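User: Show me a protein chain along with its predicted structure.
Assistant: Here is one chain, sequence first, then structure tokens.
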Amino acid sequence: MDLTEQIHLGKKWLEMDLTTLMKILGAWSQAPGPLYRLLAQTFRLAILEGDLPPGTRLPAERMLAEALAVSRNTVVAAYDVLQQEDLITRQHGSGTWVQAQPLEKTEAHRSMSNGSLARSPLFDMLLSEPHDVIDLSTGVPAALDGLSLEAFTLSEHTLASLLTTPGYAPLGLPELRQAIARYFEQAGLPTHAEQILVTSGAQQALSLAATLYVQRGDTVLVENPTFFGALDTFRSLGARLIPLPVDQEGVRVDVLERAVGTCLPRLLYLTPTYHNPTGTLLSPARRRVIASLAKEFAFPVIEDNAFADLTLTGSAPLPLASFAPGEMVLTLGSMNKLFWQGLRVGWIRAPEALITRLGRLKVIADLGTGSLTQAVALQLLQHVEEVKARRHQQLQVQLAHVTTLLQEYLPSWTWTSPAGGFFLWVRLPFGDASEFAQLALRFAVVVTPGAVMSVDESHQQYLRLPFLLTPDVLEKGIQRLAQVWNVYGQLASEKHGSLNEIV
């Protein structure tokens, strides 16, 4: 492919927008050394691993410099390195393009690489050793103080019984399925054990449910914003995502009605109870409308209730499934948000016929969730009301704490107090949260910009900020964000001039 053909291909198919590129670059500046070398190294990885295919047009130097909060000279120097290594081609008046690489070069790299996911700030936090980086990007609760270790300890009798039980129990331990069914009964939703599939966390539950329904090209309706893990799941299946806006009562059902009437959705995905990331609670009236639409137009609904027990304002309405008895509503839940981040046990509640089909997919995925983990979950469910009360108290204290900190250190930031969950959906007074997040990495703090949680990469002035962290970590994190914001404000005021290097 010559340069002219490559440029034509790039303009037609592979134009690289800044938001996508920011995701690919990830935490590029979190290492010692000159910034231009770090940037060139990150581009090199992305090119050799195929995240930036041949023919991709890269952003102009000044535009990329502004997005990364570095000087234009840094980008120029990084592009110079890449050009010298024959990784990119630059042509005056046409732009900067990724060059095709010899097969032996990419194969040699991949044999020594862990892949592109490791460049994501989230995966950096999960995979690397702790080193003074404050993670404000994820929501992972620690175990509650005051909850006895005996609740996590299996008796000799239980262990002996598990050790002598043959097979995998792919649908879940019968006793745990019964306990989860009782959990739904207590929430006002009649359920029997045959309607429950135990999974390895809520993320696997979502993946199984999505795989059951979605094929490449199918239309999936999702809230906007929504959980980025859900977006990744549907995109990996090749779904066409249609965004539905969210207001203070949850998803806008008027927009949903119009969408259902025009696009014939294959699936609707919602977090109706303490929505991630806004913390809103879908009103009972809107739940009834959604149930009616699902029945009329015969589309399934995935009801993600992973945050349903994390109330800040009072009891939650009945689950969406209770407004559509017998219909195709799959309700997902999880132990780790309420009890502990390390307890990877989730579930799907659905009509029994769907559970049978989902069980087949579960067998293909992992044969079944670990029996020891399920046994611990069974034991902990005996304490669910006590833990809900303790979390409620903890969340109220933490919300008051983060509110005080933000008012002190970042008084220009705004948000609406959530009804539940442990996130604030914060609006910046100006600027782009993705650019701000890039600058924050240089101050060793990781945040999630709103574009990552948006179907159409909107909500560019928003950040998702978790507050269920230890008070000292939260205060230190907010203080760092305030430092970043001061620098970002200075850079924004110079946006149309030259950017100063931040080292």
